[in-house]
Every structure is written in C-alpha cells, then in structure tokens.
Amino acid sequence: MGAGLASKLPNVGTTIFTVMSKLATETGAINLSQGFPGFDCAPELVSLVEHYMRKGFNQYAPMTGVPVLREALAQKTFEQYGVAYDPDTEVTVTSGATEAIFAAVTAVVRPGDEVLVIEPAYDSYVPAIELNGGIPVYVTLTPPDYSIDWQAVREKITDKTRLILVNTPHNPTGHVWTTDDLNKLAELIYDRNIWIVSDEVYEHILFDGRTHHSLMTHPVLQERTFVVGSFGKTYHITGWKIGYCLAPKSLSVEFRKIHQYLTFSTVTPIQYALADYLKQPEPYQQLSAFYQRKRDLFLDGLRSSRFTIKPAEGSFFQTVSYAAITNEPDYDLAIRLTNEIGVAAIPVSVFYHQKNDYKILRFCFAKEDAVLQEAADRLSKL
C-alpha cells in the first residue's frame, strides 16, 4: 500500500453550509442557513435559455464569454457606474463568482505573499490564498456595526502584502462600504504594489436608501482591482453558476490565463439568454426594494423576540445577537435551533479564522414571505 495523500487543505472539512442544510433536510426545519433564494427566477429567463438551446447554441462558448454578454455587461456597468470597460479585453465571464475569485487570487499571489482578509469572511477566500502559497493576514471586524478600522488595516500591511480581499455588501454581516472606505483604502495602497479582489455579488441588494460604492468608481482603486459579480444573486439563479470579472486589460490578461485552465468556458445558451435579459434594467433596479420588504417582514416577526437586532444594510442576510438569551456557543445554538424549533441558521463564528464567538447567528431572508413569517414565529418563542 502506498503512502497516504497529504492534504493541501488540512484544515478544511465539510462546510457549515452543507452541515446545516443537511440537518435542516433531516429534521424538516426551515432552512435559513444557506444563501440561496427560496423562489424561482423569472419565467422569461427560462424561456430565453430554452430558446437558445433549441436554436443550437450548445457548443463551447469563447473562453472569455460570448461577445454579446460581455458587451451587455460593459454597457450596464457604464450606465450604472460611469466606468468604461472594454468588452473584448476587460470583461470575462466565469463559472460563478467563486471561480472568478479563485482565478483572480491565483493570478496575483505567489508563494510567501501576504493577503489581507477582512473577516468574518466568505469561506472560499482563505483556501484560494493557501492553495497558491499565500499567507492570509486577518483584519477582524466586530459587532454590532462591523465597520472597518482602517488604522488596523494600515498596521497589517507590510512589504510582503500583495493582495487585499474585500466584500461589499458584506456576507455574512450585511455591512455596506461608504465613499470614505474607498478613500481610506486608496490612501493605503496608492504608492504600493498591492492589488485588490472586490467581491461585489450583492451589488443590487442595498437598503434604506444606500448606494453601492463599487471599487471601480475610485480611479486609484479601479486600475488595480478585479471586480467580481454574480448573475446568481441578482436573478435568483444561484444553481446556474454564472459570474464575471471586470478588470483593466493588464490584469484581465493574467486573469484569463488562469480562467482558461479552470473551466475554459461557461455554459453557452445561458450566456446568450442573460445577454438578452440584461437589456431590461428593471429586474436589477427593483431588487433592493424586493429584498428590503423581505428583510423588514422578517424583522417585524422578530420584534417580540429576545434577539438584539441591527437591520442589515445590504445583502440577503440578517445577523442577530442572542447574548441576552443564552451563553451557549453559537455553533451549539444553531444545531439546537434546527433540532428543537425547526429553524436552521449559520453560526457567524465559522467565518472567523479563530472561530470568534460574539453570540451572533446569520439568517438568509431570500425566502417566500410565509416561510419567513413562520420562521420568525418559531424564533420568537426562544
């Protein structure tokens, strides 16, 4: 018998999302843990995919994405943010935002490079860094508002810092960056050889009149940032796994070298369908109002509960503090809530590298209204 295979990710096991979704299924609990919509996409979008399948658009797409989709993305981006990306050289379609993040990290990070990770952080960031020989360096955000202490960021930057991973609107906390955040980041890196991967998959989900300040809108940041987006979050099609990366030509050249060996190309008929659907701005323009109503419905249902709540600023996640209810670890409480009252959540400690437990749970409110009301009723009994 040969020697055992040494793991490249020895600290990675089954993700919490898999654990909680499986437990929710086994117990029949309401699943507010994993971040996917509990409703279908627009029938028109399905019809468009079928149309292109039947027309025979079923072979490989170009590695960078079908031209009409890249052009539609460039046009939408210019109309929304006033930033021009060349669809031929600066827009790349990917098999989901997670693939885009991995390709961007791989394009930049060499063994021994340090990468700043602002935590709590989405679970794909650190494995992408470590698989490329990078060293994650953590900047830790704390409740209740999870705003960034830019002095703390400054203290973490060294001559080895090569990349900073950012996320706004933020998963899991729902925190949204301001223009001041963009300016502070630009001040830190304008004279350094540091790149940025900006995860902006919730760009169309902001609440209470807030605006999404994409890093592309700041000239210093735009020239060194890979902006990552997702159709899955915008159009309720997470299972289609279609994302994209917007980056200056010099960055896109290196990004595409990695992308072509990760997936080469992304599913063809869906790209054509999305190119058509993007011509209508209403679906993404109405998304904030759609999700704000769901957030408020869920929060109204929790008013009589003993949770402490700060309304999410963006994303389709709401965090709540249970510190006034029990002192048990957040992981244990998440399991108990699923088993005993039939609502599955995510313990926020899993998003911290040292499993910091601030007695916070994360709920996904991208669900049907009746499901949210029933979940809130159950949670209020805790």
UniProtKB/TrEMBL annotation:
Name of the protein in question? Aminotransferase
- InterPro entries the record matches: Aminotransferase_I/II_large, Kynurenine-oxoglutarate_AT, PyrdxlP-dep_Trfase, PyrdxlP-dep_Trfase_major, PyrdxlP-dep_Trfase_small
Q: Which family does it belong to?
A: Belongs to the class-I pyridoxal-phosphate-dependent aminotransferase family.
Q: Where is the Aminotransferase class I/classII large domain?
A: 29-379
Keywords, comma-separated and alphabetical: Aminotransferase, Pyridoxal phosphate, Transferase
List, alphabetically, the Pfam families matched: Aminotran_1_2
What is the species listed in this Swiss-Prot or TrEMBL entry? Spirosoma radiotolerans
Recall the GO molecular function terms of this protein's record: kynurenine-oxoglutarate transaminase activity; pyridoxal phosphate binding
Q: Which NCBIfam families match?
A: PRK09082.1, PRK12414.1
Q: Supply the source organism's classification.
A: Bacteria, Pseudomonadati, Bacteroidota, Cytophagia, Cytophagales
**One GO cellular component from the entry?**
cytoplasm
